[in-house]
């Protein structure tokens, strides 16, 4: 199992196993003291109810549970435990939790927290996650803290701010004749649209962001919060018992061209890239995204380094240029342009964004000083005439949604995403793919048909808009906001990458960047991994496959189950190529007859056994995909 985990996840670290709690039609997964995937009669009602304690950089404590007692019967379950959070310097927060669930659809989660000494935190309390796929745009009833009850709708397009504030309860429709009321006691709650960060949820959380943070929980004062879920049905139901059917895939309509695939290149990684040029050519990206940041010491040397790689690997180039905005914009950007000329760096495009915009401005906060974006773009246009100009955010869609740039001055807009802003467990990372179509639809609603790029978007976080720095992860754990993620070197990242490309394909992107070439975000193994240093990671094959599809016509695929992601394209000669990814840790059976009949060429699978050819004809079009496997058909 150790070898299997390394191949799948790039780490020997094991996630805590969940415990399925059930009472009649009600079920929930108990994980690390919190509840995930709360279902009624097999239908997901809530994605999570979690008691969360965050530090001043929005990092999440992972308290160890003690005195855990779980009891289950036919009509009732319960879980009780104690836990402790300790800050550097010794301040401590203890809390006791009680969870109870009943077959009649009632569920309660109660926590009493007691700081031993003054305890500083950005958030201490419950977060409730509503799923998005079936609920986006649907009606809800919201009860406010003053007793008002209003009819409203969950946002369809992503709301940049909080859709609901001062909440006491929210009720939504689960299924015909079935409703769920979630009631919050002990503090003031509000909701944010977590799709902003590519989380697959609407999050109702404790303590309004307009209040100061970090704040202090006074020593010796008990803080108690309770979440109560009540599911009501028009008729008596029993727990569903359905088998898992094979996933079926059908061909749909043709769409836009699939995007160019880029790789981001940092100055410090160029030397290694030059030493691996045959592998870079084999990878086949259409674009190099060359990072340049004068606030981190980049200057003429960095641009000369980029020029060497651009000359050795002559594909399209875009300079990702951070603008310090420390003085005269024309002087700053014309200075960059002069260094580009002196370095001999050939550019096809430049994307610019103020350095200050890499930091988030949460609701209620004061926007930092920044020149008008019109002035930034105008100065960039004057400094770099004759090449394409891009803008947007070098951080995430959140920031672009909250600070909408004047795209009339631009040739393309761009942003990134990161799936480990709030949570880093395997399920949450894969579920983040559900949010991507909402992100692209929301961007298109703002910027219409403007050429659109996404990336660099990787599992690990390259910079932290919400704190002082990204989290160090030298131990190879699953850590939110970490600058390295072990899964990037495993099959997990390959499956996530195919899933990512499949979810954004309908948006008609101009360019997609989901990796660097070398380094922690790269497609080549680093020292200390199970594979030989410098050899392709599994994600290499995923990015290589996407690059081979660039410019081909996207074919929409109807997939019967979201356990499998699928992407297909047709070449100018009519040949169809498809990629499939198993987004789960389980074997998944897939019927591929519709694809196999259209696709010409071999079928190749990458799984824990490596790469191998398959004969789907002998299998009558049925394929079993192991955990996080990826498959190319055609």
Key terms:
634 residues, alpha+beta, Beta-galactosidase, Chain A, domain 5, TIM Barrel, Immunoglobulin-like, 3 domains, 16-stranded antiparallel beta sheet, nine-stranded mixed beta sheet, 18% helix, 38% strand
Can you give a write-up of this model?
This protein is 18% helix and 38% strand. By secondary structure, the chain is of the alpha+beta class. The longest helix has 15 residues, at 329-343. The protein is globular and about 70 Å long. The model has no long low-confidence stretch (mean pLDDT 94).
CATH arch. level architecture of the largest domain: Alpha-Beta Barrel
Shape: globular
**The CATH topology of the largest domain:** TIM Barrel
Number of helices: 12
**Portion of residues within helices:** 10-25%
Number of domains: 3
Low-confidence regions: none
Short description:
The protein is an alpha+beta fold and 634 residues long. Helices cover 18% and strands 38% of the residues.
List the helices and strands and how they pair.
Layout lengths: L1 H8 L9 E5 L2 E6 L2 E7 L2 E12 L9 E9 L3 E11 L5 E11 L3 E10 L3 E3 L1 E8 L8 E6 L4 E5 L10 E12 L2 E8 L3 E5 L8 E5 L8 E3 L5 E11 L13 E11 L2 E6 L4 H5 L2 H7 L3 E6 L7 H13 L3 E8 L5 H15 L5 E6 L18 H11 L4 E9 H6 L9 E5 L9 H6 L4 H12 L4 E3 L36 H14 L6 E6 L21 H12 L3 E7 L4 E7 L5 E7 L5 E4 L1 H6 L4 E5 L2 E5 L7 E4 L4 E4 L1
Parallel strand pairs: 19-31, 20-21, 20-27, 21-22, 22-23, 23-24, 24-25, 25-26, 26-27
Antiparallel strand pairs: 1-2, 2-3, 3-4, 4-10, 5-6, 6-7, 7-8, 8-18, 9-17, 10-16, 11-12, 11-13, 13-14, 13-15, 14-18, 15-16, 19-28, 28-29, 29-30, 30-35, 31-34, 32-33, 32-35
Helix pairs in contact: 4-5, 5-6, 10-11
